[in-house]
Write the structure tokens for this entry.
Amino acid sequence: MVVASQASTELGKRIAAELGLSFTGMIRKRFADDEQYHAFPEDISGKTLIIVGSTHTEGSHQELMDLIQGGRYWNAASVNVVIPYLGYSTMERAKRGHFEIPKGVTRTRQIFRARPDFVAFVDLHSEAVLHAHGGEISTRHIWTGELVVEHLQKMDLGDFVLVSPDYGFSKQVAKMASLLGCPHTAADKDRYDTDKTIVSQVSSVVRGKTAVICDDMIRTGGSIIQTAERCMEAGATGTAVLATHLVMAGEARQRFLESSITRVIGSDSYPGRVSDELLEVYSIAPLLARVLQNYLNIHLDQ
């Protein structure tokens, strides 16, 4: 049975279709005091339960917890979770002396303590969260790079170069560049506040080419837009952006429209993102369905 949090319903339906299964909608109600009611529409006892849910908001995180624990309460044979976008994923460690809470780890630990059998994450900012359990849960970090390469090969980008906005993401960019047979480079970036960065320079390898700036997510877009500006200054003929998670917080969309960036390419991992004049959204449902099918085939055979 495939179910999903309310926000991830559309992606849940796509995954179910790829698996050749019917999607099962949860029964939901909201009481006058704002408490929320959830019920499975049928008996799940003895069934393999697949739950799809991004944790991009406080409510979505709690709803995922409820669905996992509901699966356990009603005796599902196994509870298997796909988290397309993990909220707080950039907060995987605490800075010394700041006494901050590393919510990327603590919230993932909450999910693990709800006792799912299997949890898959998509293009994590850091793999540190995978180890926030005691070894009793199967986890998978799904890299979307090969799917992205397939998508880029179908696009008319001309002569292009992949650009990482910092050296932290450069390994993934190098891997994609190798699959595409194109050059790649990384910008010099320094973070000086929570959502503030400075991008100082970009290699001249972008000269005469379209610079495709790659990252795991777009939050406010500040460093990506700065990287695009440095690319144009270094002689790029145009700029595009590629990111798995299209968070697009605050005024990010308007800032992109006012920049040199002609298109933003990303997945449907973050709920509510669809293609329009700026965004080009592809679905990760086929990839997630393959991972689930492979895992469950092995699991059920055992």
Observations:
- Residues 285-301 form the longest helix (17 residues).
- The chain has a mean pLDDT of 91.
